[in-house]
Design goal:
It is a single chain. By secondary structure, the chain is of the alpha/beta class. It folds into two domains: about 210 residues, 3-Layer(aba) Sandwich (Rossmann fold); about 170 residues, Glycogen Phosphorylase B (Rossmann fold, 3-Layer(aba) Sandwich), CATH 3.40.50. The strands form two sheets. An eight-stranded mixed β-sheet has the order 4-3-2-1-5-6-7-8. Strands 11-10-9-12-13-14 form a six-stranded parallel β-sheet, with helices on both faces. The longest helix is centred in the first third of the chain and has 26 residues. The chain is globular and about 65 Å long.
């Protein structure tokens, strides 16, 4: 894709990856890009909101805003910390837009909050932009718990308003688009629908792992129960009891970290399981992954969880770095793993996972076949290829 002169993009995103594929693409293909990173997320230590300003791919300015902290739960979390964080980020987003005099060609929202703010500001005549794009990669069903249900009903109302007032919505999976239509009805004719599918990260060159054994596994993500971190740890525990030389490298932090570390220590698993803590540097993640043979991508079957509809961020990162997957049936991403033979699909059960790992441990040649599938999957849905095609379609229409 050729550099697009005379186009100024403002984008807003969550702080999970410093090498976020969409933002890198925008920075490298548009003359002016302002990237607002929000102080929101499920990390235990959320960085402050920041604005990075680029011209011709070079950083020309930065601004740091408020740092949020909402390590809490229950009523205090949903009725104080989260509203406070959302209000602070909204104010900082407005301050960031003020730095560009509320003018840009395209406002590219990578989260519902900036999409909502952009729509409101444009309706008020404050924001001057030709197009607002909402990149939808998340979907929330209404859970039964009182506090959480109120929170998600609020998101629902905002989302329903956004989808009627942006210029385009880009979905990451067909199921996400279908679920969105079932929940809210068909999009207005004026709102254009496009698909970006998987948008894999740019591959960072790193060394290849040594031969099996030991069988080295990676876990990337927030250490929460619904990320099946306990199932991943117990799978390794079973493998160790079976006499396998296996290692699990855990990258991430979260509410279960202290309990997990204690479990690993109490069950004499410290040689088999290593904690790296939270890490968002792509180069460091790639370095750790270069030691591994498989990525663990298990999810609990939560009927109200979003992963039935989504591509799974950690799975995208594994494939981007050439790792085949051990993936449960829950994330929509499992469909791509099946279609391309890029991993092994299992039930989210430690015994079943351990059996699958034992098959590979006993016959490491399976990894070569899976890696071929990984290569084909990555090539088809690499971010620059997908985004170049979608942007060209949009700009030529």
């Amino acid at each position: 894709m050729n550099k697009l002169k005379n186009l100024h993009i403002f984008t807003a995103e969550l702080p999970y990856e410093k090498d976020q594929p969409v933002t890198l693409f925008l920075r490298d293909n548009f003359v002016r890009v302002d990237d607002f990173i929000m102080s929101l997320g499920q990390m235990s230590n959320i960085p402050p909101s920041r604005l990075y300003q680029y011209e011709n791919g070079k950083l020309i300015g930065t601004k740091e805003f408020i740092k949020n902290n909402y390590n809490s739960g229950g009523l205090k979390l949903y009725f104080f910390y989260i509203p406070k964080a959302l209000a602070a980020v909204t104010w900082d987003l407005i301050r960031a837009l003020h730095r560009i005099r509320f003018k840009c060609d395209i406002f590219f929202a990578q989260h519902f909050l900036p999409a909502f703010v952009a729509v409101i500001l444009r309706k008020l005549g404050i924001l001057k932009c030709n197009k607002i794009i909402f990149w939808m990669f998340d979907f929330f069903l209404i859970p039964p718990q009182f506090t959480r249900s109120l929170y998600y009903r609020g998101i629902d109302s905002i989302h329903n308003y956004i989808r009627k007032n942006v210029d385009e919505i880009w979905y990451t999976t067909p199921r996400l688009a279908e679920s969105d239509e079932i929940r809210f009805g068909r999009l207005p004719e004026k709102v254009i629908k496009r698909f970006t599918h998987l948008v894999f990260f740019r591959r960072i060159l790193a060394k290849k792992p040594t031969a099996v054994p030991p069988l080295r596994l990676a876990f990337l993500g927030s250490l929460r129960k619904n990320n099946a971190i306990y199932e991943s740890v117990k799978s390794v525990e079973i493998c160790v009891k079976m006499g396998m030389k296996v290692e699990l490298n855990i990258i991430g932090s979260g509410p279960e970290e202290t309990t997990l570390r204690k479990y690993v220590k109490d069950n004499n698993l410290t040689k088999a399981i290593k904690f790296y803590g939270f890490e968002d540097r792509g180069e460091k993640i790639a370095e750790i992954f270069s030691q591994c043979h498989l990525g663990m991508s298990l999810y609990t079957a939560d009927p109200y969880g979003p992963n039935w509809h989504l591509t799974s961020g950690r799975s995208r990162r594994y494939i981007s770095q050439g790792l085949a997957l051990i993936v449960s049936t829950v994330p929509y991403f499992a469909k791509y793993i099946y279609d391309f033979n890029a991993g092994i699909i299992v039930d989210n059960n430690p015994e079943d996972v351990a059996k699958a790992l034992k098959r590979i441990y006993d016959n490491p040649k399976i990894l070569k076949k899976l890696k071929k599938g990984v290569g084909k999957l990555y090539k088809k849905y690499q971010a620059d290829n997908i985004l170049s095609k979608v942007f060209e379609e949009m700009l030529s229409s």
